[in-house]
What we know:
Blueprint: H1 4-19, H2 34-40, H3 52-60, H4 66-77, H5 94-110, H6 126-145, H7 149-181, H8 186-205
Helix pairs in contact: 1-2, 1-6, 3-8, 6-7, 7-8
Amino acid sequence: MNTDVAFHRAQVYRFLADAFLYPTENWLEDAPLLMDILLKLDVLQSWDLEFAPFATLRGAARIWDLPALQTEHRRAFGLTGSLCYETEIGLPHEFHQSQELADIAGFYRAFGFSMGGPVRERPDHLAAELEFMHVLALKEVYAAQNEFVEAVGICADAQGKFLQDHLGKWIDLFAEALSRSAAEGPYVALARFAAEFVQADARRLGAKLEPRPLGDSQPTPLPVEMSCEVCPIAE
């Protein structure tokens, strides 16, 4: 079995997962290295070689140093970074949010993916979902190298299912929402690039994506006890 494709896919997902977290290193310096990986994946055949978001990322390291990148992350995502959570976009009911969180956690448990570590986030954070895809791709590589044929199929199917049920359903919406709320910059370009890569990867895996439309999305409502209606100041 050829493990190169799965390994290169894992590399891209690892890059994206790290880049969406609050930066402690300048991830833009690694962006030019993606060119060789994307060429090996034949992703660029379906894109213009000067695909604008990717071209922006490749040249941005000359403009954005780490302090500037940290400032831009705070500006783009705010203190709460609510745009980065799947269940905070387009889910009008708290019950639906709980269902989605439980389903995501179920995927993670099935493949031994833990949310522990120095950076702790909710399971529906974009970086967590991207890292999960990274882990699944590496598990596919390991299974192939050890000739665990059934496990290879399980890992590949899980990747397609996760894109179809979760990451692929909202990453376009995330990129569009970010482009409306933030000025052009590295994170807007990163979001557009990530959305295009996920779409290309879904096609590779045979997953059918049905993105949530931005026009129909609503912020997830706060619980009643946290609303302004019960705030003493409002009285």
